[in-house]
Amino acid sequence: MNHEPLNYDESIEEVEIPVTWKGRQYFLREATGEAHAIYQNALMASTSMSADGSVRKITGLADAEPLLVSQCLYDAGDKQVSLLIIKKWPARIVSSLYEKAKEISEIDKEDSLEVLTKKRDRLNQLIEEKTKDKDPAKNEHSDSTDGSESHTSLVTAEV
After folding, report:
1. Which CATH number fits domain 16-105: 1.10.3720.10, 3.20.20.70, 3.40.50.2000, 3.30.2220.20?
2. Can you give the C-alpha Rg of the chain in angstroms?
3. pLDDT (tens digit, 9 = 90+) per residue, 146-159?
4. How far from the centroid of its chain's Cα atoms is residue 59's Cα?
5. Which residue, among 25, 39, 44, has the nearest Cα to 101 in the 3D structure?
6. pLDDT digits (tens, 9 = 90+) for 59-91
């Protein structure tokens, strides 16, 4: 597999958006790697899973929005705005800043067609392997008697 070198010197500029609230100047910046990790950890910490992998309980998830904003919002003196201050602002402002911070940081960005195709191909490969491991006699694709596809069919998608 041939990979091209990654050079971010010329192609990536840090995103910074001016924000004004009550006559004060702020700057919303894209999340740093650390800010993104803090946000993701907060999301994961808010979710409690059961032994079978299902979600058992969610607590504190609402704190993730103001947390990300506090990691990305700076005042005119280049000081991060604290979480305590962000939590005192109106929800509509915090929500708007949260959505913009996610957008400029490419958090929760939708996968491209190429990425989705690779994921589908990998899933098909895993399904094939699991099917072979489970029962070698069921490796062939066949239609069931009711006309629906058998459980061994692979993931397909129109692209």
Report:
1. 3.30.2220.20
2. 23
3. 544 444 445 555 54
4. 19
5. 39
6. 878 889 999 999 999 999 999 999 999 999 999
